[in-house]
Amino acid sequence: MDRILITGALGQLGTEFIKHFKKLNVFVLATDIKLPKYKLQCEFEQADSLDKTRINELVKKHDINIIYHLVAILSASGEKDPFKSWKLNMNSFQNIAEISVENNIKKVFWPSSMAVFGTESKLDLVIQNPLMNPSTIYGITKLVGEKLMEYYFNRFRLDIRSLRYPGIVSVETAPGGGTTDYIIDMINAAKKGIDYTCFLDENTELPMMYIDDAINSAITLMAAKKSNLSILGSYNITGFSITPKKLLNEIKSNGFNLKVNYEPDFRQKIADSWPKKIDDSSSKKDWGWNPEFGLKETIIEALK
Ligand code: SER
User: Is-above-0.90 flag for pTM?
Assistant: First the structure.
């Protein structure tokens, strides 16, 4: 029987994983540094992932055997305080790895990101193993995590599985402090009927995926037979690619009358160092990745 710990459980991914596991009647202990604003559909403990002793106690107390470690400071926020970002992203990763080895945790899910790539990665269509030169502290911490995943598997047989998520489009819980956040901000502005000032240039193309696909892909990867996984690090994954201009047209074609101004800021440089498109054929081949939501379906869902 799976007994799952989710760290960073109140974030964009965590809230959706909780709903997913609730439907399956699987035990979940959600932890976050914040308190929830509403009653969660699972157990909750307020805990800081940097506090290894506390997380270790919770793992033992609740007999946890699977961990979804979702704590991270995203790309744009990370640039405001890179030292804090390194500390949170890396030390929490290390804590989870140590706790997992000590407690014989069966599997860990840990999201990586397209931020691991960089200007040397042939950004028009990024393959699984290109040159990688991440320019953000966020991307650097994700790339280090990917290397550690491989190392810990070879060293301790610790089974950490990971996806390099593109921007994730969610309705209920927004991300915070990411470079791809514009897509959700623009959709929300359309729904509210207010003007939107976009922090990226209108022709900036980035890969995205709908939240349901983000959750289902992780679940499918976690269920895959380890022997089918040819990659020990993180898998490329994508839904569709879009620019702010294309998004605006899509929003308008759904009957919304939105006005957008463009004022690119420091996030433009981050976006320019990220893929336009991602080749996720290894995910399709190894564990059957198959997105359900394309561009049109995603925008329709998000505008509801
Ligand atoms: N959505 C993330 C960000 O923009 C990328 O993984 O930081």
Answer: yes
For residues 217 and 221, what is the distance between their CA atoms, to the nearest angstrom?
Answer: 6
Q: Which domains does the chain have, with CATH numbers?
A: 3-165+211-227 (3.40.50.720), 168-207+239-303 (3.90.25.10)
The rounded Å distance from CA 20 to ligand 1 centre is 22
The ligand 1 atom at the shortest distance from the C-alpha of residue 167 is 1
DSSP string, 83-112: HHHHIIIIIHHHHHHHHHHHTT-SEEE--E
pLDDT at 229: 98
Going by CA atoms, what residue is nearest to atom 1 of ligand 1?
Answer: 167
Question: According to the model, what pLDDT value does residue 174 have?
Answer: 87
Task: Report DSSP letters for the chain, one per residue.
Answer: --EEEEESTTSHHHHHHHHHHHHTT-EEEEEESSPPSS--SSEEEE--TT-HHHHHHHHHHTT--EEEE-----HHHHHH-HHHHHIIIIIHHHHHHHHHHHTT-SEEE--EEGGG--TTS-TTSB-SS------SHHHHHHHHHHHHHHHHHHHH---EE-EEE-EEE-SSS---S-STTHHHHHHHHHHHT--EEESS-TT--EEEEEHHHHHHHHHHHHHS-GGG---SSPEE--SEEE-HHHHHHHHHHTT----EEE---THHHHHHTS-SSB--HHHHHHH----S--HHHHHHHHH-
- Confidence check: pLDDT of 176 > 90: no
The number of the ligand 1 atom at minimal distance from the alpha carbon of 138 is 7
Specify the residue with its C-alpha closest to ligand 1, atom 2.
178
